[in-house]
Amino acid sequence: MLAKRYLNPRRAVLSSFTLISLIGVMLGVLVLIVVMAVYAGLERDVKGRLLGFTPHILVRSAELNFPQEDSIEETQTEPSWRKLAEEATRIQGVAAATAFVADNVILDVGSLQRPVSFRGIDTSDPSQIKGIADMLDLKNYPGSTADLGLDDRAVISSLVAEQFHLRIGDTMRLYSTRNFEGVMNAYKATEKPVVREAFPDMWKLATDLFSAEWVKQDGLEQVSVEPFKELYDSLLGIYDEDIRQPERDLVENLLRAMEAGEREDGDEVFRFSAENKTILNEAYRALGETDAEKMDGEILKGLKSLVLPKEATVVGIYSASQMAVTPELFVPLPLAQDLAGLGDQVQGVALRLDNAYASEEVAAAGRKVLGPARHLETWGDQYQAFFALINQQRVMMYFALSFIVLVSAFSMMAVMFTVTIQKRREIGVMKALGAAPGQIVRVFLYQGMILGVLGSALGVGLGRLVIHFRGLVQEAMRTMGFDPFSEALTGFGVLPAYNDPTEQAMIAVIAFVLCSLAAMVPAFFAARSDAAKSLRNL
């Protein structure tokens, strides 16, 4: 009763001291509530966007066929990633397993060019299409769609659209960065001599072997094993060297013709039919008649098809944020494989889970199922640095903004010291009437507790109200020419926010505890005052 009377001694609506203390606590709690809710909303929204197209778990394996030259010994007909995907779907919690391709290309529109990143989207996976569709900026680009199909289409970021002045239906050219490696290799090959000049020892072996008289027996032509094997090994080594592609094809033909020879166990000769011997001679003759200038002309002519860009149509534009790194282009998987130079292969297998937030548990189970040769990386691992940065910023904001509540508590302490000085006579009277020090302390402690409860409750309530009407607050700021949360920076027309009841309750409790502790200090000094001196107003 005394605490409430001291908070409003003149029976007005609120005393000035009480109002100052109450507003200080309320503002501190309000700022903390709003800022933390916006941070939580940004984190949840960014995670939702990333999970729309990012693999929940990415499986990589050395067995995946990355772009390479076909082997002489064997040719694989089915991409190995499909088998890996089938194995991965057996893991409990995995909803789908699709191809993963991501790389960089040179985007060319008019006179503007710059490298951009792209991500391949498996259009047969509805969850990936839905993830892209949820990101589309239908407000500023109403014709946007996530229907990539299998054609050369693309969904681009709003940052790329603004920089290159692209709109729905526009066409852009994409130059694969892999092309430049092929161009350089082709030009380097033209600087080298032909095979018979570059490898004279091999060519002497071939000349001696094919110029010598072959022994005929039972309608088959025979050649000794040793020189034949020596030439074959030399040609196999040359095939792996950096030579012109036309000559590599001729060397391959000669090797395959030599493989047609038959040899029984223990024999010292290889036997060839007349037809196979003719093919062998033709392959040798073709390799011996190569013309460097003619081959270089064919190579340089072939570069035209190598460096031709892919033309893609913009079918959608999504709202990008500078606060989160996202691919600048989304393209269909076949186009992504072409741009990355992978053929039918991929860089990994992307797993979509029933529950993306259970990725660590599913990855642990997947490592047991798929074995140690396969590397599994969760979406948390892929964006660990990014989310660590967000969490660090949240902690820094907690630390910085908590000082507002702390300053409010110190202000309340100063006010309570003033009140104790004003109430020295009343304190003296209470002590003269037999009030114990604990009772004196409780009078002022209860004042702090009442202010803490009211300030915390008002701060939480007003904070939630500001969060609810944050769109109107942003519009009002923009009308005044002040926009600290521009859509170009955040990627959101209205700032996302998420009310976490547990977090907000914790902020209110901390504010209440600080206010209570702030009232304890002046209450302690008031309880220790001398009753006689207080009554004499000394």
From TrEMBL:
Start and end residues of each MacB-like periplasmic core domain: 18-181
Membrane topology: Multi-pass membrane protein
Chief location category: membrane
ABC3 transporter permease C-terminal domain segment(s): 399-528
UniProt cross-references to Pfam families, sorted A to Z: FtsX, MacB_PCD
Subcellular location: Cell membrane
Domain of life: Bacteria
Keyword match Membrane: yes
Coiled coil: none
Residue stretches spanning the membrane: 12-42, 395-422, 443-467, 505-527
The entry's keywords: Cell membrane, Membrane, Transmembrane, Transmembrane helix
PANTHER family, alphabetized: LIPOPROTEIN-RELEASING SYSTEM TRANSMEMBRANE PROTEIN LOLE
Family statement: Belongs to the ABC-4 integral membrane protein family. LolC/E subfamily.
Protein's name according to its UniProt entry: ABC transporter permease
Organism name: Luteolibacter algae
